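Appendix B, example 12.
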Amino acid sequence: MAEMERSQVLLCAGAACVSSGALLVKDALIREIQKNGLENEVRLVETGCVGPCNMGPLAIIYPEGVFYQKLVPEDAREIVEEHLLKGRVVNRLLFQGPEDERKKFIEEIDFFQKQVKIALRNCGFINPLNIEEYIARDGYLALGKVLSSMTPEEVIEMVKKSGLRGRGGAGFPTGLKWELTKKSQATPKYIICNADEGDPGAFMDRSILEGDPHSVLEA
């Protein structure tokens, strides 16, 4: 059984951070990790969007949870040699508040302090291409329950009672949509994922598909 790494570097690989150079930062971090012989001690994980796109490229290093922002490839050496090797936080890469104070954790930033993520709860915390990481955060529990202990009618009734509605503008009740589909005599039936972005500046669907695709499949 493989040993667990002592540190994980979660690097945002969402569209905004990639456009700002995140993949170049990733390559530089890999080189420095290998150069210092830390391949078996440090794990680099590409995640979906963390949220503060204007601060990208960005990374969160665990187990401490230190948040680094506006990274460039040249920062990789200092992150590896100071933080990962010596345990010293690289203060110049921390978020700087309005009164010049440095914020070590993303939760300390005013904009994020009172946020409670629901649909985006896994984005920025898992490798979106790794099903095991999704399962480790209670992924597919709902699907397991539905497949093992509920009838289609019970599932539809539960969704109707939840009040879940589409968010495309019409607000059509999801449970009713499922009920009408089930009653339809036409075959075969298809499941279609609507990931259209009506507003080019809004990345709601894209953020979920990039950062937590299994949640879309499970839903």
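Residues 99 and 109 are 12 Å apart (CA to CA). The longest strand covers residues 7-12.
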